[in-house]
Amino acid sequence: MDFETKKQRALKLLAKTGMWKSTYAPPYVNLLWRFNFRCRPPHFVPFYMTFLNFSLYFGVLWGGIMWFLQWRNDGDTAGSILLKIVSAGITFGLIMTVYYALSRWYYRLPAWKDL
Fold first, then answer.
1. Do the Cβ atoms of 61 and 92 come closer than 8 Å?
2. 88 and 54 in contact (C-beta within 8 Å)?
3. Contact of 1 with 10, CB cutoff 8 Å
4. How far apart are CA 92 and CA 53, in angstroms?
5. CB-based contacts of 19: which residues, under 8 Å, 6+ apart?
6. CB neighbourhood size of 51 (10 A)
7. So where does this one cross the membrane (predicted)?
8. Which of 44, 48, 90, 92 is deepest in the core (most CB within 10 A)?
9. What is the full per-residue pLDDT of the chain (115 aa) written as tens digits?
10. 3-class secondary-structure state, position 113
11. Domain span at 20
12. What is the DSSP letter of 89?
């Protein structure tokens, strides 16, 4: 079965659960789909990939915003700023990964290969 068919099946299944569309097809995923990236809906992404994706994008985005709004004037060392970015990224990544894992379990969603 090709990717597009699996994606449509997954989206129909997720819609039947009653969860909000912004939860199972968040804006960043819709943007990637518009640019023809073949990425799965977040509920069907493996645990470690969900953690890496959320940790990296949040750490970089949040770190950049905090640098321009606060840190560049504080005189912190590069090491302490990097530690803050990594800590925030890991924390956010874990929270989102656990959220999607529990959501997968609660709605009894099948594995991607079983769609």
1. no
2. no
3. no
4. 10
5. 103, 107
6. 21
7. 44-69, 81-102
8. 44
9. 789 999 999 999 999 999 999 999 999 899 999 999 999 999 999 999 999 999 999 999 999 999 899 888 888 888 999 999 999 999 999 999 999 999 999 999 999 998 8
10. helix
11. 3-114
12. H
**Two tokens, residue 101:** 């894992």
How many structural domains is the chain composed of? 1
Q: What is the pLDDT of residues 12-41, one digit of tens each?
A: 999 999 999 999 999 989 999 999 999 999
CA distances from 84 to 13, 33, 59, 65, 115 (A): 38, 32, 9, 13, 40
Whether 85 contacts 63, CB under 8 Å: yes
Please tell me the distance from the alpha carbon of residue 31 to that of residue 14, in angstroms, as a whole number: 19
The residue written with tokens 């960043």 in the block is 28
Taking CA atoms, 102 is separated from 73, 88, 107, in Å, by 40, 21, 9
